[in-house]
Specification:
Residues 1-20 form the signal peptide. This protein is an alpha+beta fold. It has eight helices and 13 strands. It has one domain (53-279). The chain has helices spanning 5-19, 31-34, 74-95, 103-112, 128-137, 216-219, 238-246, 271-284, and strands at 99-101, 122-127, 141-146, 153-160, 177-181, 187-195, 205-207, 213-215, 223-227, 230-234, 255-256, 259-262, 267-270. The strands form three sheets. Strands 1, 2, 3, 4, 5, 6, 7 and 8 form an eight-stranded mixed β-sheet that branches. Strands 11-12-13 form a three-stranded antiparallel β-sheet. It is globular.
């Protein structure tokens, strides 16, 4: 069966539309297009950095001011961050994107497989293949979950930086994407591990836009574990990575950020709670 020229042209146009990449906007999505419960945005637009995609909120650098007007309290934040990373990991697994924990989030995994209670931001990394996949098919997608702890459904948005496909160091656009809680404004920073293609680069050297660099064997093969009760991938040489970034003491010091690590219970306890407990014990004697 022969197809007419007009039919072939229609098929070609359909395939072009079906496979075309969505246009990535020069700045993060405007408040009007993503607004939820706020009547105005709380975003600190920096005129000195006109090319910066993700803008900080006016009240806290680790919150998205399009979705929140204040930081959460200590206990509230921990619960919402746990939901944030769990929904992210479940989503990436379901769509087939390769991702793993990095930076302070990886340090939290090292200690007790949980987010450190004083940490207000989460960090993950993805491969270049996953970056292109997410940018092409999942930018600005909304993902809704019904979580046991909350009575209402929770929505999360994956937003890609319009500069995410550009290689090279970029201080203004180090973050390639964010997984954002549209109810609280909390987010996960997503960066990409790229091969260093410069002529004089060391074989196997991998780089990130934020100037971090790793050898391929530092990251791969990824190890499998759990984090906040969800299956997760972590870098192969995680002790070396953490020691280089935070120092050897970060893997052993039991007192940090006004918390003490209880090895028996495997939790970080605020010093205020410890002081209160010690006072009560002394009062009983």
């Amino acid at each position: 069966m022969r197809l007419s020229l007009s039919t072939l042209l229609c098929i070609w146009l359909f395939l072009q539309r079906a496979t075309a990449h969505p246009v990535l906007q020069p700045r993060m999505a405007d408040f009007g297009s993503v607004r939820t419960h706020l009547d105005r945005p709380h975003v600190n637009g920096n005129k000195k950095q006109p090319n910066k995609y993700f803008q900080e909120s006016t009240f806290h650098q680790h919150y998205d001011g399009r979705f929140a007007d204040r930081p959460l309290k200590y206990d509230e934040q921990s619960h919402h961050l746990s939901a944030l990373i769990r929904t992210y990991l479940l989503t990436m697994e379901s769509i087939g994107a390769e991702t793993w924990l990095m930076h302070g989030t990886l340090l939290g995994w090292y200690w007790n497989r949980r987010i450190m209670p004083w940490d207000s931001d989460l960090d993950v990394m993805i491969s270049e293949t996953s970056l292109h996949f997410l940018a092409a098919y999942h930018n600005m997608t909304m993902h809704t979950f019904t979580l046991p702890r909350y009575k209402t459904r929770r929505s999360y948005m994956l937003e890609m930086n319009s500069h995410c496909l550009e290689n090279g160091l970029d201080k203004q656009n180090m973050i390639d994407a964010r997984w954002i809680d549209t109810d609280t404004g909390l987010f996960i920073d997503i960066t990409t591990l790229r091969r260093n293609d410069t002529a004089n680069s060391e074989p196997g050297l991998m780089v990130v836009k934020d100037k971090h660099h790793y050898m391929y064997d530092d990251i791969f093969p990824l190890r499998q574990s759990t984090f906040e009760g969800i299956p997760v991938s972590i870098p192969y040489a995680y002790p070396d990575i953490l020691a280089e970034e935070y120092g050897d003491e970060s893997l052993a010091a039991a007192d940090y950020q006004h918390h003490h690590y209880d090895a028996e219970k495997q939790i970080w306890v605020p010093q205020a709670v410890l002081s209160s407990s010690a006072f009560n014990d002394d009062d009983k004697t």
